[in-house]
């Protein structure tokens, strides 16, 4: 199969559903061999089996560095290299500061920020030896502006931006690029479960007047993963329909 990622090997964390799964589909369509890493082996394997191309699933808790290292090694063992890493795994534990528990704060920081650091660190180590590679970190518009009830999530997603820029400076000379995306309101199972009042309030902030689709985030991830963005590193690309620009 010809495509922008022909013969490239990509690992996507949190790839069994939502935006991660959309990225997996898009990457396979463009010729990549994909490893889906997700918390549950069954979900990862099922998602991989439904992709129209070479793909495999591995269990991985991104909070655990050893599990992330094992997932990356699984990609190299199965397909011979690791060319693209997408750090997408995430959770929410929304609550106002007054009601948020310390555990709610810690687990969100661990999954998003520590998980992204684990993935970036591990993938970069492999990629710098290869002399090439692209890492795409999934932040959020919440990391740019902050939302009520998301002091944990906003802090973690803002942290991913700083991590991305610092990591990009460290590995650029080795041919490894590190960029981030900041999706806004995207149609997923999580967002569609929001109360109508919350949905309407968010829609009112979007100049394009519509919600984004997971495939639209995947297209930007494809751009950053491919040679189309060969002279870009340390950048943050908003995918928001113009929301809060």
Automatic annotation (TrEMBL):
SUPFAM superfamilies: NAD(P)-binding Rossmann-fold domains. InterPro entries: KR_dom, NAD(P)-bd_dom_sf, Sc_DH/Rdtase_CS, SDR_fam. Keywords: Oxidoreductase. One of its GO terms (biological process) is fatty acid elongation. GO terms for molecular function: 3-oxoacyl-[acyl-carrier-protein] reductase (NADPH) activity. Its EC number is 1.1.1.100. It comes from the Bacteria. Residues 8-189 form the Ketoreductase domain. PROSITE patterns: ADH_SHORT. Belongs to the short-chain dehydrogenases/reductases (SDR) family. NCBIfam families: PRK05653.1-3, PRK07231.1, PRK12826.1-2. This is 3-oxoacyl-ACP reductase FabG. It comes from Leekyejoonella antrihumi.
């Amino acid at each position: 199969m010809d495509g922008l990622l022909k013969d490239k090997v990509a690992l996507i964390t949190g790839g069994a559903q939502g935006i991660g799964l959309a990225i997996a589909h898009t990457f396979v369509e463009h010729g990549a061999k994909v490893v889906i890493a997700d918390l549950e082996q069954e979900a990862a394997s099922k998602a991989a089996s439904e992709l129209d191309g070479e793909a495999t699933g591995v269990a991985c808790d991104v909070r655990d560095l050893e599990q992330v290292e094992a997932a990356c090694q699984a990609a190299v063992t199965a397909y011979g290299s690791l060319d693209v890493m997408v750090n997408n795994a995430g959770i929410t534990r929304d609550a106002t500061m007054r009601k948020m528990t310390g555990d709610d704060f810690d687990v969100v920081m661990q999954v998003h920020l520590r998980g992204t650091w684990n993935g970036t660190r591990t993938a970069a180590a492999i990629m710098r030896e290869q002399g090439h590679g692209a890492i795409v970190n999934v932040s959020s518009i919440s990391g740019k502006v902050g939302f009520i009830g998301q002091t944990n999530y906003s802090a973690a997603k803002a942290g991913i931006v700083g991590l991305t820029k610092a990591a990009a400076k460290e590995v650029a000379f080795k041919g490894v690029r590190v960029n981030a995306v900041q999706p806004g309101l995207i149609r997923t199972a999580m967002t569609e479960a929001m109360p109508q009042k919350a949905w309407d309030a968010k829609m009112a902030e979007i100049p394009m007047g519509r919600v984004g689709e997971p495939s639209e985030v995947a297209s930007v991830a494809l751009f950053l993963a491919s040679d189309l963005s060969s002279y870009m590193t340390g950048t943050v690309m908003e995918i928001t329909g113009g929301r809060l620009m």
